[in-house]
Amino acid sequence: MANSKFEYVRNFEQADSLLPNTWIVVRIDGRAFTKMCAKYRFQKPNDRRALDLMNTAAKAVVTELSDTIIAYGVSDEYSFVFHKSSNLFERRASKLVSTVVSTFTANYVYSWSTYFPDAPLSPPLPTFDGRAVCYPTVQNLRDYLSWRQVDCHINNLYNTTFWSLIQLGGLDNKDAERTLAGSLAADKNEILFSRFHINYNNEPEIYKKGSVVFRHYELVDPNGHTVDTDTDADGLAEPIQQQSKSRAEKDRKKRAKARVVVEHMDMIKDDFWDRRPWILSNKPGKVPKEA
Amino acid sequence: MANSKFEYVRNFEQADSLLPNTWIVVRIDGRAFTKMCAKYRFQKPNDRRALDLMNTAAKAVVTELSDTIIAYGVSDEYSFVFHKSSNLFERRASKLVSTVVSTFTANYVYSWSTYFPDAPLSPPLPTFDGRAVCYPTVQNLRDYLSWRQVDCHINNLYNTTFWSLIQLGGLDNKDAERTLAGSLAADKNEILFSRFHINYNNEPEIYKKGSVVFRHYELVDPNGHTVDTDTDADGLAEPIQQQSKSRAEKDRKKRAKARVVVEHMDMIKDDFWDRRPWILSNKPGKVPKEA
Amino acid sequence: MANSKFEYVRNFEQADSLLPNTWIVVRIDGRAFTKMCAKYRFQKPNDRRALDLMNTAAKAVVTELSDTIIAYGVSDEYSFVFHKSSNLFERRASKLVSTVVSTFTANYVYSWSTYFPDAPLSPPLPTFDGRAVCYPTVQNLRDYLSWRQVDCHINNLYNTTFWSLIQLGGLDNKDAERTLAGSLAADKNEILFSRFHINYNNEPEIYKKGSVVFRHYELVDPNGHTVDTDTDADGLAEPIQQQSKSRAEKDRKKRAKARVVVEHMDMIKDDFWDRRPWILSNKPGKVPKEA
Amino acid sequence: MANSKFEYVRNFEQADSLLPNTWIVVRIDGRAFTKMCAKYRFQKPNDRRALDLMNTAAKAVVTELSDTIIAYGVSDEYSFVFHKSSNLFERRASKLVSTVVSTFTANYVYSWSTYFPDAPLSPPLPTFDGRAVCYPTVQNLRDYLSWRQVDCHINNLYNTTFWSLIQLGGLDNKDAERTLAGSLAADKNEILFSRFHINYNNEPEIYKKGSVVFRHYELVDPNGHTVDTDTDADGLAEPIQQQSKSRAEKDRKKRAKARVVVEHMDMIKDDFWDRRPWILSNKPGKVPKEA
After folding, report:
1. How many angstroms away from the CA of C4 is the closest CA of chain A?
2. Is B12 an 8 Å CB contact of chain D?
3. What is the pLDDT of residue B73?
4. What is the pLDDT of residue C35?
5. Which of B5, B6, B62, B113 to mutate to test binding with chain A, by most A CBs within 10 Å of its CB?
6. Which positions in chain B touch C238 (Cβ < 8 Å)?
7. In chain D, which residues have their Cβ closer than 8 Å to the Cβ of C151?
8. Does A270 have pLDDT greater than 90?
9. Contacts of C12 in chain A (CB under 8 A)
10. Which of B:81-110 have CB within 8 Å of C?
11. Cβ distance D22 to A19 under 8 Å?
């Protein structure tokens, strides 16, 4: 029985390759997580177990997809960045997005019981949707990550104050909302401190900064060292095809061996990037001795 | 701290809405399933547990996403069809694909231990990638599904014969390949019957036909009944927006209550569709009394 | 000197093929035609010479691009429809749009002096922009054309009344606008008739209906004849590739010889289409004897 | 008569905005120019009138679309570059391509008689198709332009030698082809010089280098001057929205007044760009006194 009669349907598939030489961000978001939070009684304003579970799933994605250079997570969302030189799945958007989402979801469900041993999953299960966005320059990419990290800060300060008013101050949701309407950051800090003796600065970094996932190598001294991402960062990148295949293969293997870490630190300032030139260059750094 | 400085990065996200009034097929495929099969010792040529697990995950997708009208699975792939009138996620390709893939993956991992109690999962976990394709006409859509079902038949006949030669005939892989090179369907049927007393027609339907997932209502007599998908099937569909919202809402609820079934039957002939007009019309049928 | 060092830039070109088996409409619009009208003193509310020039350019497009089945023009816009089976330029949107726009513009500029012998063109020259839209069903396509023709009617009734109030009634623009604010079609007919003795029904068809461009064959009696577009119109189209190449070639030649006509008639009712089955079937009809 | 019944068809139009912060190249190509060349007896290997006509049309495009920063033409093709910060037509591909193609075509047809007074146009008229491609970095953009200019050189050397063999050497086409098969640049130079006393270096620059169109300001000394495109060229571009609107408006006016010139010079080396920083910065330079 020949299949040729029907095979014409393959021609309906349409190309969705992402523009070459751009940084690809795949962002995933929890679907209906408000319900999830209620169903499994996530703590407010932050549930450490839920965040640790997100980070575990994100680490698996970064580890398995070695073209990801960095990931950033906050709340029920995570952004994965593919290096601009990546040709994974020929840069097809649907393959990139679906693979990230599937790997993340698989690990989230698989590791659930480690973090919530007393609250077994039941259908409908936690799921995530995703999308891919391209950024042409390092500045655009860093602005994207800064946008997410500033958002993390804004939301966490609000939520911390909001839930303090409720949990410690005895207000109901509406009164807490009303109290915070139009308030500035300084006002919220003041409410936390004067009413509840909470110094926001002392809150855990994971809540204030979110989580940054990347491969760990020896830090670089930004002053004593000619950071070799210069050529990559300046938009005058070498043509994609000119890196030798064997070199690319070697680098891939090095990256596969590198330790993937989860940190909670500022990515907005230059320092983070200056000391970790391998992230934007995608050239593996020195493996630390202690590792 | 204002976020406005960075928010411009949102403008880089690009629209990916699928053409209205077309049938959307989201097909997912197992990633690196050859390795998976080896790692968890899937039986050859078909592992019933693995197929049942696929079907369980697919049922969850069809149940949770009520705009899916039918799904078809074979081996490590599954196709989910959204009705041409669906406006789920405003028809954004990345949202549709990622949601299907995430829901499928979550259920696959979650239900794994039910079907493989003695082979616990370990990283790297099973994952799936996906893509969306639009089909403008019922004929194109049916040809797509026929294409997959014919493929199922062709592959299963080959694999059944191939593994019989090895498992029952004592050949090694190369000899089995050589034996089958250039053989026609009749040749394979003959090999199975004369050498191994296997009548291919008696093989389980799930292997020969794959799995069809849909909502179950009372079957319709194609002769005694004016099938009311006529208007939908003839390309002269009513404008999408003209169905009243309340009617749409009622239909959605009815669909949500309908029983989702997994069958192993021919979808290529008209009969399957004639007796189940609700699949293409997306108008819920009569709930069977026995249900 | 080898060019290979730079040739990688070709990879940045992205696919833009339009979905197969859908009707492609390329609509072009005059750019800055308000200025054009003033500069060359187009008559209000309709300038017959300008419309004839548009029609001449449109005829050239339909004649030169034999995959166009019909075109419809009103004011400074024109829509060109490519048959759903067309594979012209592999259905690449940019090629289709740019070729239509270029052919139209070339003919518009070339034929200008025929229609405006006393008003020679000077820079900036008249130009047009364009876009392509796909319609999956005949009904969608006909609704598109009906949309444009209804728009023609609505605008022409308004403009005819508006300019009568000014040219015959002595009102200024603002007063004319005010007079028509909120008026219904009946009100405008009444104003035309009672104030200016104009029976709108007697206005020239070209102004009321716009211009329809198509290949002319012998009309078909919709009752006495089994219209052979049935299979095409019902969404159950034959797979695209199944029409034989030689047949397609013959049809192309016949179409190339057919006379392209410009008519001003109703396309909204079925009659127009029933009597001209060749438009939607793309199978050339009988050449009329008188031709 | 309401139009609402049909207006749903507008929803079928799909977004085609090009990625922000990337350099947009719209390249147009003559359609069927081999026939055109024969019909109007263009001189071989280069027809100066035809090239001058192309350049006249290109100047009109650059002049009328002030977001174009440079254009490059060779033979029957022309590439127009829009600055990466351009938001013309909201960066919609079809609008950009169609407007460039239409403006070019209109001017080509309009100016034809100036360059070919003795060969009046007749249908089918000269037309062009077009496409848009995005380049993320200055280097990618310059590589694109270098690619076209190297192509110009390669083709012109070949064509000059080929036609010399025929026109001066008396060979027929096949023999000329055979003579050049596998020849290197040096071989062609040698043939030209030894057989026909032609020093290729003395050929007109317009044939060897093609035509570069840009706004003319006072040249900058690359050494004595800190070229202020640094920030733009290094990929660390300021967010697009941060340039003030009034500044943008002023710059637009300055650009509109600048003289658009056509030159035949090397764009591959840095010198061209270093001395004309306004091209990549899109900040108007100093208007030369002599202008």
Report:
1. 11
2. yes
3. 98
4. 96
5. B6
6. 139
7. 3
8. yes
9. 19-21
10. 84
11. yes
* Residues D180 and D158: beta-carbon distance below 8 Å: yes
Q: Residue A233's pLDDT band (boundaries 50, 70, 90)? A: very low
The answer to whether A6 contacts B147, with C-beta atoms less than 8 Å apart, is yes
Q: Which of A213-227, C163-177, D72-86, D230-244 has the lowest mean pLDDT?
A: D230-244
> Percentage helix, strand, coil, to 5, in chain A?
50, 15, 35
Across C264-268, average pLDDT? 97
Q: Taking 90 as the threshold, does the pLDDT of residue A249 lie above it?
A: no
Nearest CB among C22, C233, C235 relative to B138 is that of C235
User: Could you tell me how many CB contacts below 8 A there are between chain A and chain C?
Assistant: 27
Residues of chain C found within 8 Å of residue D140, distances taken between Cβ atoms: 9, 12
Question: Rounded to whole angstroms, what are the CA distances from B213 to A129, B56, B61, B257?
Answer: 23, 10, 10, 15
Distance CA A189, CA A184 (A): 9
What CA–CA distance (Å, rounded) separates A190 from A165? 12
State which residues of chain B have pLDDT below 70.
1-2, 224-243, 290-291
State the residue for tokens 């569909």.
B237
Average pLDDT estimate for C91-101: 98
DSSP A201-246: GGS-HHHHH-EEEEEE-----TTTS--TTHHHHTS-PPPGGGS-HH
Query: Concatenated DSSP letters for C51-100?
Result: HHHHHHHHHHHHHH-TTEEEEEEETTEEEEEE-TT--GGGGBHHHHHHHH
Question: Which residues in chain A have Cβ-Cβ distances shorter than 8 Å to D137?
Answer: 21, 136-137, 235-237
- Restricting to D residues 187-206, those with a Cβ less than 8 Å away from any Cβ of C are none
Q: Is D75 annotated as a binding residue?
A: yes
Any idea which residue has 């609107």 for tokens? D245
Quick: pLDDT tens for D84-132.
999 999 999 999 999 999 999 999 999 999 999 999 999 999 999 999 9
Chain B: give the shortest CA distance to residue D84, in Å. 13
Mutate to test the interface with A, among C3, C4, C6, C8 (most CBs of A within 10 A): C8
Nearest CA in chain D to B10: D20
A30 annotated to bind ligand: yes
What ipTM, to 2 d.p.? 0.93
Neighbours of B286 (CB within 10 A): 10
Q: Is A159 helix (H, G, I), strand (E, B) or coil?
A: helix
Residues in chain B closer than 8 A to D15 (CB atoms):
14-15, 17
Segment C264-279 shows an average pLDDT of 97
Mean pLDDT of chain D: 92
Give the best residue of D134, D147, D229, D238 to mutate against chain A (max A CB count within 10 A).
Answer: D134
Q: What was the pLDDT predicted at C242?
A: 52
SS3 B130: strand
State the pTM of this model.
0.94
The percent of residues above 90 in pLDDT, for chain D, comes to: 84
pLDDT over 60 at C9, yes or no: yes
A118 is in an annotated binding site: no
d(CA B107, CA B65): 14
As a whole number, mean pLDDT of residues C211-237 equals: 67
Q: Which helix (H) or strand (E) holds C34?
A: helix C33-39
Give the 3-state secondary structure of residue C6. helix
* A73 marked among binding-site residues: no
D132 or D236: which carries more pLDDT confidence?
A: D132
- Which are the contacts of B37, defined by CB distance < 8 A and separation ≥ 6? B47, B50
Region C133-153: mean pLDDT is 98
Determine whether the interchain pair D136/A234 forms a contact, defined as Cβ–Cβ distance below 8 Å.
no
Per-residue pLDDT at A4: 82
What is the pLDDT of chain C when averaged over all its residues?
A: 92
